[in-house]
Amino acid sequence: MKTSRPDRRGFIIYSFFFICFLCALASINEVRFDSLLKFGRCALSNINAPNSTSTANVLLAPNSSSDDEIRILFGILTLPDQYHRRHFLRMIYGTQTPVGASVDVKFVFCNLTKEDQKVLVALEIMRYDDIIILNCKENMNKGKTYTYFSSLPEMFNDTKGPNRPYHYVMKTDDDAYFRLQSLVDSLKPLPRQDLYYGYVIPCPSMDPFVHYMSGMGYLISWDIVEWIRESDIPKNHLEGPEDKIFGDWIREGHRAKNRYNAKWSMYNFPEPPTRCTHELWPDTIAVHLLKNQEKWITTLKYFNVTDNLKPSKLYHIP
Ligand SMILES: *[C@@H]1O[C@H](CO)[C@@H](O)[C@H](O)[C@H]1NC(C)=O
Ligand SMILES: *[C@@H]1O[C@H](CO)[C@@H](O)[C@H](O)[C@H]1NC(C)=O
Ligand SMILES: *[C@@H]1O[C@H](CO)[C@@H](O)[C@H](O)[C@H]1NC(C)=O
Ligand SMILES: *[C@@H]1O[C@H](CO)[C@@H](O)[C@H](O)[C@H]1NC(C)=O
Ligand SMILES: *[C@@H]1O[C@H](CO)[C@@H](O)[C@H](O)[C@H]1NC(C)=O
Question: Best of 54, 57, 58, 158 to mutate for ligand 1, by most ligand atoms within 8 A of CB?
Fold first, then answer.
């Protein structure tokens, strides 16, 4: 009786390693050992109850459609007190559902300075969760653009997500109107690396490889965002007109071998007429300098944005 004990223990250990061996074999070649795989999963699930649905997804569906989807962080630089503007822009962007991309619209500003902001902005975040507060003081031309881009890698450093949280990051103003589907369609054929996209300054220029992109809105790929965080070039050159300085960093750092000039799909509102604009036309990605309600209404009407209003007994809009 006494001698049979080690034998039994030996048998149990042997069986355990045999099961492990089968599992290993099965996972090495899941097609040929398909039935073994099932057995292996079964055996494993008895040991430590793995998350079998996610395992199955990895094995059976390697082609995840989210690979094709362009992920864009759409940052609108604004000021904490611009409550009404934010609510308005939430309508403007919340009623657009671009196909082939996921676009995260965020409002970006520096540290709060007033007591009422601490309540009102916190409520907005609780309701909409679309605000980024940077560690800076509100300023003109003293590095808000740098703080914006250079803060993002750490803010979106979730290791569980994709290795690039976004393919592209946009920086735009609260007086610009973007048509997100047109933006997404224009991005589809473009590289997702080393890209600098926007409206080339000066207005008559069509060459994106000289000068820089207008502050009406420009977009860069995530690798350039990371470069801005890591490189000394932007750090040592913060003061001055933000968008022009951005162009200087790119030139000095020899970045953005891929550039895209979205002119004349991006332009200023037609009034006043300048060399930076033309009439509203269908092939539009962005209209800038919408400085008052009348200009917004003209623009929104032109693009038929309320055409899809669903009919209802509850209202009548002639
Ligand atoms: C299985 O994975 C899903 C999604 O990743 C997760 O929500 C769930 O909690 C996991 N279940 C177990 C038992 O780990
Ligand atoms: C992944 O699925 C998409 C859409 O179903 C398809 O167009 C694409 O060719 C697939 N890619 C691979 C690598 O199978
Ligand atoms: C912004 O606010 C944070 C937290 O309140 C503070 O630690 C930081 O010093 C402030 N930054 C500036 C530039 O005022
Ligand atoms: C992400 O950033 C936070 C805040 O700085 C930090 O505590 C955390 O360790 C970072 N995580 C990773 C994975 O880098
Ligand atoms: C808006 O709708 C009108 C009338 O249906 C149409 O003629 C016009 O082309 C539309 N405008 C745009 C920019 O799609």
Answer: 54
- Does residue 109 sit within a domain? yes
CATH of the domain at 80: 3.90.550.10
pLDDT value at residue 20? 57
pLDDT tens for 53-100 read: 444 344 444 444 456 799 999 999 999 999 999 999 999 999 999 999
Q: Are residues 55 and 109 in the same domain?
A: no
- State which of 135, 154, 155, 159 you would mutate to test the pocket of ligand 4, scoring each by most atoms of that ligand within 8 A of its C-beta: 154
Range of the domain at 266: 67-302
71 in the same domain as 116: yes
What are the C-alpha distances in Å from 88 to residues 109, 121, 304, 309?
A: 17, 15, 17, 17
Q: Tell me if 200 sits within 8 A of 263, measured CB to CB.
A: yes
**Pairing status of strand 168-173 against strand 217-221:** antiparallel
Residue 178 is inside which H or E element, if any? strand 177-178
- At 16, the pLDDT band (50, 70, 90 cuts) reads low
Residues 75 and 194 in one domain: yes
